[in-house]
Design a protein that fits this description.
Helix content: 55-70%
Largest sheet: none
Radius of gyration: 13 Å
Number of strands: 0
Strand content: under 5%
């Protein structure tokens, strides 16, 4: 289960849980590292094809959540 793939009550519950990690107070010091992780992640994408956006966003969001919360 992933917050972006949910709707209704389940989405609201996931969003509330994740809101702590992405709050301005918690995330602000991490912005340079979060931007860097996005850049690194995007560099792995093929330049001559398509990318499954939901899968990529899920991986990146989990990676960033772990960076901020660990």
């Amino acid at each position: 289960d992933f917050v972006l793939g949910q709707s209704g009550e389940k989405h609201a519950r996931f969003r509330k849980l994740l809101s702590v990690a992405y709050s301005r107070e918690v995330a602000s010091p991490w912005v340079p590292e979060l931007v860097s992780s996005v850049r690194e992640h995007v560099r792995t994408w093929p330049t001559d094809g398509t990318v499954g956006v939901m899968e990529q966003v899920q991986e990146l969001a989990f990676e960033q959540y772990c960076q901020v919360m660990c």
